[in-house]
C-alpha cells in the first residue's frame, strides 16, 4: 500500500509541476529604495512565489528547504519591483566572483524572465549575481540568449546571515507589452547555486521538451498602466592617438549619437549617426590557404544587439557592411597601387524591429556606406590618379516573421544591395519555416532562397533545405536534405562558400534527462552526411561520426569523437577553376577533450585530435591546452595554447598558361607541403567592482606552409609530379595583438572606456622556424601599430528629462 501511495504522490507532484504557476502582484505608492534590504512595509504583505524546482541536473527535483527561495513582485506607474530571498544554510560558501556586465563568472545567480505578451515567443531576462553584477538578454527558442541587448534598470544584491537578497527595479521602458487595461504576463524566476552547479526555476522547465520560453508561469494583477515613451539618446565622444613606423603620433577627435525610439508598444527604432567602432575587439586573423575567404565575428554593437529577426534564413553577414571594397583597382603595365583602403566607411545605419501581440515580427535594417577610391601611381612619371573601388552603396534587409501556436513560425526575408553606377547589385529572397507539433515533440524546418545578381552577366540561383526531427525525450533523431544551384550567390550581404551540390544527412542521439550514479549529464550521438555535385553526381563530401559528451558528479566534462570519410571525394573548390576537381583521399580520425570544473580556483581544458588519410605519410594532428586560475573574486587569468600540423598536405598554389596536362586549359599547380600553426592567447580581468573593470587580451599567432615539391592537376582529378615549377610559394604569417582596457559604468547606461592597443602582422615567403625570433620581430617599434583611445558615452532617458522641457 505504501508503494501505491508513493506513486500517487509522485504523480500528483509531477502533474503539479506541468501546470503554469500564477503569481499575483500588488500596486504600490511607496517609494521603493533599491538597497537589497526589502524593509518597506508593503513587501511583508505581497504574495510570494515559492517551491522552486530543479532544471539541471536532476530535472524535476524540488529545491531543498535549506535553499528555499521566495520572490515577490510589486508595481507602480513606472516600473515593476522584484524582491528575492535566497536562503542558503552555508552563506560563507556562496560564490561571488566580481565580473563585468553580462559575464557572471563563478558566482551565484538570480534571474527574472518576463514576457509582456505572454505568447511564449520571447523573454526579456534580467540577472543579478551574488557579487552585485548585472546581466540581461533577449531569449528565443530559435536563437537562444542574445546578451548583446542591454537595458537600463537598477538592482542590488547583499549577502546576509541566512543567504543573500536581491532587489530589482525594471522600468516599463525596458520591457514590451500591450496597452490593455489588465495585463497578463509570462513570468519565471531562475536561481543557480554555483558551487553545486544546480539550476532551479519557479515554474517547472521540463527538459524532455525542446523549449524554454513556452514553459513560463503567469504574472497577474497589473492594471491601468501605459507603455511609456521609449526614447533614449546616447551621445558619445572619442579621442584617438595613433602611431606607427610610418606615421607620427596623430590625434583624432570623434563624436556621434545613437538613438533608440519606441515607435509603439512593440517596435523599436535604432539609429547610429556618425558611427565609431574604434574600440571593438580585434579580429583573429589566420593564414588562409583555402579557396574561401576567412569569416570574422561581428564585434560592432549596433550589428549584434537585438538581431534575432535578422538572423532568420542565415542571409545576413553584417561584416559585409563597411567591409572590403567590391572591386580592386585596375592598373596598366607601368602603374602600381599606392593606396587601396581595406574597408569602406559606414555613413549611418538604422534598424526597426519588434513583434505584435498577434505574433508578427517585423525587422528592417538599412545602412549606407560612402564612395571609396584607391590611388594608383605611374612608376615612370610619378603621376597619380584615383579609381573608384566602391561607390555609394545602400544595404537593406526586410524580415516578416509570423509565429503561431506559440512554437512555430513562417518567415519571409529579403536582402538588397544597391550600388551607384555600373557596379554590381544583388537581391536575395527567402521563405523559412520552423514548424513544431503542439507538444514540441517533432519539428519540420526548412527554407527556399532565391538570389539575383545584376552584374556584367546576370545570375539567378536557388538554395533549399528540408529537415525533419524528433525533438523530445531520451532518444532523438533527424533527417534532411538540401540543394544549391551553381549560380546561387548571396555574398553581397551574406556569406556562402559552396554551391552546385545536393546533400543528404541524418543523425540519432541518446541522452539522460536525470543524473545517474556516475554522470550528471550524458549524451551520445551519431551523424551521417553525403554531398554530391549536381552536374556530375560525384561525391564531393562524406562523413560518418560518433561522439559522446558527459559530465561527472564533480562537474568535470569529458568527450570524444570518432569520424571517417570512407569514400574518396571530388573537390570542385580547391582547384579554383570551373569544372575542374581534385580527388581527395579517404580518412579516419578522432579527438578527445577534458574540461575540469570552472568553479575550482584552478581549472583547465585539454583536447587532442589526429586524422589519418589513405595516402602514405599524410596526416594531421592538433593539441590544445587552456589552464585558468582565479586568484581571487577580483582577479583571474586564462591562457590557451593551440598547435595544428599537417604532413604531406596537398594544396593549390598557382595557375600557369602551359599545356603540360591539357590542350584546352591552363595547368593548375599544387604543392605537397607541411604546415604548422602555433597560437597563444592570454586573457585576464581585474574587477574593482561590478561597474569598474580592467581587462587584458593578448594573442600571438604564427602559421606557415612549407612546400616540399610541386604537382600538377590532371584531367582525371589526380596529381602528378611537376618539375618545371620553381617559384617560391612558401607562406609564413605572424601576427600580434594586445588590448589593455579600463571601463567604468559611472551611471546607468553611461560608460567611460580607455583602451591601449598595439598590433603587428607580417607575411613572408621565406620561412624562419626560430619561434622566438618570429615573436620578437613583431615586438619592436618598427613593426607595431599603437592606438590609445578614450571614449565617453552618456545615456539619456527622455522620461527623466521631459519635465524640464
Number of helices: 4
Biggest sheet record: 24 strands, antiparallel, barrel
Compute the average pLDDT: 91
Q: What radius of gyration results from the CA coordinates?
A: 29 Å
As a percent range, the share of helical residues equals under 10%
Helix/strand/pairing class, anyone?
mainly beta
What does this structure look like?
- It is a single chain.
- With 805 residues, this protein is mostly beta strands.
- 4% of the residues lie in helices and 54% in strands.
- The strands form five sheets. It has a 24-stranded antiparallel barrel. Strands 1, 3, 6, 7, 8, 9, 12, 13 and 14 form a nine-stranded mixed beta sheet that branches. The protein has a five-stranded mixed beta sheet with strand order 2-4-5-11-10, with no helix packed on it.
- Strand 31 (539-552) and strand 32 form a beta hairpin.
- The radius of gyration is 29 Å and the shape is globular.
- Residues 1-18 have low confidence and may be disordered.
SSE layout:
Layout: H1 2-17, E1 22-24, E2 26-27, E3 53-56, E4 69-75, E5 79-87, E6 109-115, E7 123-129, E8 134-140, E9 144-146, E10 154-159, E11 163-171, E12 182-193, E13 198-201, E14 217-223, E15 231-244, E16 247-262, E17 267-273, H2 301-304, E18 335-339, E19 346-355, E20 360-369, E21 372-378, E22 384-390, E23 393-404, E24 408-419, E25 425-436, E26 442-454, E27 459-470, E28 475-484, E29 501-511, E30 519-533, E31 539-552, E32 557-565, E33 569-571, E34 582-584, E35 587-595, E36 602-613, E37 619-630, E38 635-656, E39 667-689, E40 692-713, E41 719-721, E42 731-747, E43 750-764, H3 771-776, E44 785-793, E45 796-797, H4 798-801
Parallel strand pairs: 1-14, 2-4
Antiparallel strand pairs: 3-13, 4-5, 5-11, 6-7, 6-12, 7-8, 8-9, 10-11, 12-13, 12-14, 15-16, 15-44, 15-45, 16-17, 17-19, 18-21, 19-20, 20-23, 21-22, 23-24, 24-25, 25-26, 26-27, 27-28, 28-29, 29-30, 30-31, 31-32, 32-35, 33-34, 35-36, 36-37, 37-38, 38-39, 39-40, 40-41, 40-42, 42-43, 43-44
Amino acid at each position: 500500500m505504501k508503494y501505491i501511495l508513493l506513486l500517487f504522490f509522485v504523480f500528483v507532484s509531477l502533474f503539479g509541476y506541468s501546470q503554469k504557476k500564477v503569481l499575483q502582484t500588488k500596486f504600490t505608492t511607496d517609494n521603493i529604495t533599491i538597497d537589497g534590504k526589502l524593509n518597506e512595509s508593503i513587501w511583508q504583505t505581497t504574495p510570494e512565489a515559492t517551491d522552486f524546482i530543479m532544471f539541471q541536473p536532476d530535472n524535476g527535483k524540488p529545491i531543498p528547504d535549506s535553499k528555499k527561495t521566495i520572490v515577490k513582485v510589486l508595481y507602480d506607474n513606472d516600473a515593476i519591483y522584484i524582491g528575492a530571498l535566497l536562503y542558503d544554510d552555508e552563506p560563507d560558501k556562496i560564490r561571488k566572483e566580481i565580473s563585468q556586465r553580462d559575464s557572471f563568472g563563478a558566482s551565484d545567480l538570480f534571474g527574472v524572465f518576463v514576457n509582456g505578451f505572454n505568447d511564449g515567443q520571447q523573454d526579456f531576462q534580467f540577472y543579478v549575481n551574488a557579487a552585485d553584477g548585472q546581466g540581461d538578454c533577449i531569449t528565443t527558442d530559435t536563437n537562444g540568449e542574445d546578451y548583446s541587448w542591454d537595458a537600463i534598470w537598477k538592482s542590488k544584491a547583499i549577502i546576509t546571515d541566512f543567504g543573500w537578497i536581491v532587489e530589482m527595479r525594471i522600468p516599463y521602458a525596458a520591457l514590451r507589452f500591450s496597452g490593455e487595461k489588465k495585463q497578463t504576463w509570462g513570468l519565471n524566476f531562475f536561481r543557480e547555486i554555483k558551487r553545486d552547479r544546480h539550476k532551479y526555476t519557479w515554474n517547472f522547465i521540463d527538459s524532455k521538451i525542446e523549449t524554454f520560453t513556452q514553459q513560463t508561469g503567469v504574472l497577474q494583477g497589473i492594471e491601468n498602466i501605459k507603455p511609456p515613451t521609449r526614447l533614449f539618446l546616447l551621445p558619445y565622444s572619442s579621442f584617438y592617438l595613433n602611431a606607427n613606423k610610418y606615421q607620427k603620433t596623430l590625434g583624432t577627435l570623434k563624436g556621434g549619437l545613437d538613438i533608440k525610439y519606441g515607435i509603439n508598444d512593440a517596435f523599436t527604432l535604432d539609429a547610429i549617426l556618425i558611427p565609431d567602432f574604434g574600440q571593438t575587439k580585434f579580429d583573429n586573423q589566420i593564414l588562409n590557404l583555402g579557396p574561401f575567404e576567412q569569416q570574422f565575428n561581428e564585434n560592432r554593437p549596433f550589428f549584434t544587439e537585438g538581431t534575432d529577426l535578422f538572423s532568420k534564413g542565415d542571409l545576413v553577414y553584417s561584416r559585409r557592411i563597411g567591409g572590403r571594397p567590391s572591386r580592386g583597382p585596375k592598373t596598366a603595365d607601368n602603374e602600381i597601387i599606392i593606396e587601396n583602403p581595406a574597408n569602406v566607411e559606414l555613413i549611418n545605419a538604422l534598424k526597426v524591429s519588434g513583434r505584435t501581440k498577434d505574433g508578427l515580427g517585423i525587422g528592417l535594417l538599412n545602412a549606407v556606406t560612402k564612395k571609396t577610391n584607391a590611388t594608383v601611381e605611374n612608376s615612370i612619371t610619378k603621376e597619380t590618379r584615383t579609381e573608384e573601388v566602391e561607390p555609394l552603396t545602400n544595404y537593406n534587409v526586410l524580415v516578416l516573421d509570423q509565429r503561431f501556436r506559440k512554437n512555430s513560425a513562417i518567415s519571409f526575408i529579403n536582402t538588397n544591395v544597391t550600388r551607384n553606377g555600373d557596379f554590381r547589385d544583388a537581391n536575395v529572397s527567402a521563405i523559412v519555416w520552423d514548424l513544431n507539433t503542439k507538444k514540441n515533440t517533432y519539428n519540420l524546418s526548412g527554407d527556399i532562397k532565391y538570389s539575383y545578381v545584376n552584374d556584367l552577366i546576370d545570375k539567378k540561383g536557388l538554395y533549399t533545405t528540408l529537415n525533419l526531427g524528433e525533438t523530445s525525450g531520451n532518444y532523438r533523431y533527424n533527417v534532411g536534405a538540401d540543394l544549391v544551384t551553381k549560380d546561387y550567390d548571396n555574398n553581397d550581404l551574406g556569406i556562402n562558400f559552396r554551391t552546385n551540390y545536393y546533400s543528404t544527412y541524418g543523425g540519432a542521439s541518446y541522452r539522460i534527462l536525470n543524473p545517474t550514479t556516475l554522470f550528471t549529464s550524458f549524451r551520445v550521438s551519431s551523424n551521417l552526411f553525403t554531398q554530391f555535385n549536381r552536374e556530375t553526381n560525384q561525391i564531393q563530401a562524406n562523413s560518418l561520426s560518433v561522439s559522446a559528451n558527459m559530465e561527472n558528479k564533480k562537474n568535470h566534462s569529458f568527450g570524444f569523437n570518432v569520424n571517417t570519410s570512407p569514400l574518396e571525394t571530388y573537390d570542385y573548390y580547391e582547384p579554383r577553376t570551373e569544372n575542374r576537381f581534385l580527388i581527395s583521399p579517404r580518412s579516419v580520425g578522432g579527438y578527445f577533450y577534458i574540461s575540469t570544473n570552472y568553479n575550482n580556483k584552478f581549472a583547465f581544458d585539454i583536447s587532442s585530435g589526429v586524422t589519418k588519410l589513405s595516402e602514405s605519410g599524410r596526416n594531421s594532428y592538433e593539441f590544445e591546452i587552456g589552464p585558468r586560475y582565479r586568484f581571487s573574486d577580483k582577479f583571474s587569468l586564462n591562457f590557451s595554447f593551440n598547435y595544428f600540423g599537417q604532413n604531406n598536405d596537398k594544396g593549390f598554389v598557382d595557375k600557369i598558361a602551359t599545356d603540360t596536362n591539357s590542350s584546352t586549359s591552363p595547368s593548375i599547380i599544387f604543392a605537397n607541403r607541411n604546415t604548422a600553426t602555433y597560437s597563444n592567447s592570454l586573457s585576464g580581468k581585474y574587477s574593482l567592482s561590478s561597474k569598474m573593470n580592467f581587462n587584458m587580451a593578448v594573442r600571438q599567432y604564427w602559421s606557415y606552409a612549407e612546400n616540399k615539391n610541386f604537382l600538377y592537376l590532371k584531367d582525371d582529378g589526380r596529381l602528378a609530379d611537376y618539375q618545371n615549377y620553381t617559384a617560391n610559394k612558401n607562406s609564413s604569417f605572424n601576427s600580434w595583438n594586445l588590448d589593455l582596457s579600463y571601463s567604468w559604468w559611472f551611471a546607468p547606461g553611461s560608460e567611460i572606456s580607455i583602451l591601449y592597443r598595439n598590433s603587428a602582422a607580417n607575411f613572408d615567403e621565406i620561412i624562419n622556424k626560430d619561434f622566438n625570433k618570429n615573436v620578437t620581430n613583431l615586438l619592436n617599434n618598427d613593426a607595431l601599430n599603437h592606438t590609445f583611445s578614450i571614449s565617453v558615452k552618456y545615456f539619456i532617458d527622455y522620461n527623466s528629462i521631459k519635465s524640464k522641457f
